[in-house]
Write a structure and sequence with these properties.
Blueprint (H helix, E strand, L loop, with lengths): L7 E10 L2 E11 L4 E6 L5 H9 L5 E9 L2 E2 L5 H6 L2 E4 L6 E5 H15 L7 H14 L10 E2 L5 H15 L3 E5 L7 H16 L3 E5 L3 H7 L3 E6 L2 E6 L1 H20 L1
Parallel strand pairs: 3-10, 3-11, 6-9, 9-10
Antiparallel strand pairs: 1-2, 1-4, 4-5, 7-8, 11-12
Length: 256
C-alpha cells in the first residue's frame, strides 16, 4: 500500500445474515489517523458493518472487498484480523465467565505484540500498565481480577472495552455506540482516549447518535447508512442536520 492510500478500503461490500441481505453495497475509505462517524436508523446495518469487517461467522460477506493496510481482511480468520490491527467494540459487550479480565487483556496484547515482532509483556509490567489505564478511565482496579464483564454495569463494560482499546493500540478501531451507558465523565474519557490514539496513528469508525460527543470528536467524515447503503457523506454539519430533523426527514431531504 502506498503512503497516499487509505488505511481501510471497503468496496461494494454485501453482507448477508442467514437468508437476509443487510448490507447491499457499502464503499468507504478511512485514512490513517482519521475518524469517521457512522450514523443511521435502527436496522440500517451499522453494527453489521463492524461485525463483518471483524470476521464474525454469522455475517457472511458474499460480495466486495475490504483491505486493511493493503491486506485482504475477508480472507483472514477473526483472530488474524485482530493481529493485523483491527479492534471492534461491541454494542453490548458479553460476559466471559471463568476468564479473568487481566489474563484476557494480557493474552490479547501479547498475541498482537508477537504479530508485530515485539517481545511479550510479563505479568508485572502488564499489571502496572493496566492499573494506570484503568485509573485514567475511571475503572476500579478490582475489575482487573474479575471474570470479563461478569457482574459489570453497562458503563463498566464500556469502560472495560476502552481499557482494551488503550492497551492494544490498534491500527483501526470500530466503536459501536461506545458512549451508550456512560456518564458524562465516561464520555470525556472516550474523547480523550480517541484523541490520544489518533495522534499515534489509529483510525476510527465510530457509531454514535450522541451529537455532543460527535462534536467533541471532530470527525473528518460523517456517513449516513440507510437500507444497507451509504446514503449521504458529509462533515459535522450532516450529523447536526440528522440531530435536528431525524433520519426519516433527513433521508427525504437528501433524495429531493
Amino acid at each position: 500500500m502506498t503512503s497516499s492510500s487509505p488505511l481501510l478500503q471497503v468496496r461494494d461490500l454485501r453482507v448477508d445474515i442467514g437468508e437476509r441481505t443487510v448490507l447491499h453495497s457499502v464503499s468507504l475509505d478511512v485514512p490513517a489517523g482519521s475518524l469517521v462517524v457512522l450514523m443511521g436508523a435502527n436496522g440500517s446495518g451499522k453494527s453489521t458493518l463492524g461485525m463483518a469487517l471483524a470476521g464474525h461467522p454469522r455475517y457472511n460477506v458474499v460480495h466486495g472487498q475490504a483491505l486493511l493496510d493493503g491486506k485482504d481482511l475477508i480472507g483472514l480468520e477473526a483472530h488474524e484480523r485482530a493481529r493485523a490491527g483491527l479492534f471492534l467494540s461491541f454494542q453490548s459487550p458479553p460476559d466471559i465467565p471463568g476468564v479473568k479480565n487481566n489474563l484476557f487483556i494480557r493474552t490479547a496484547m501479547n498475541a498482537v505484540r508477537e504479530s508485530r515482532g515485539e517481545a511479550p509483556l510479563d505479568a508485572f509490567d502488564f499489571l502496572k500498565s493496566a492499573k494506570s489505564g484503568a485509573k485514567d478511565l475511571g475503572l476500579p482496579e478490582t475489575m482487573l481480577g474479575r471474570p470479563v464483564n461478569e457482574g459489570f454495569s453497562g458503563g463498566e463494560r464500556k469502560r472495560n472495552e476502552l481499557l482494551q482499546l488503550a492497551m492494544l493500540k490498534p491500527r483501526l478501531a470500530l466503536l459501536d455506540e461506545i458512549d451508550s451507558g456512560l456518564d458524562v465523565d465516561g464520555v470525556r474519557a472516550v474523547v480523550a482516549l480517541i484523541e490520544r490514539l489518533r495522534a499515534q496513528g489509529t483510525s476510527f469508525i465510530v457509531v454514535s447518535h450522541y451529537l455532543q460527543m460527535i462534536e467533541l470528536l471532530k470527525p473528518d467524515t460523517v456517513l449516513r447508512l440507510d437500507q444497507g447503503c451509504i446514503a449521504e457523506t458529509g462533515d459535522l454539519e450532516l450529523a447536526r442536520s440528522i440531530a435536528r430533523t431525524g433520519f426519516a426527514r433527513n433521508a427525504a431531504t437528501a433524495e429531493a
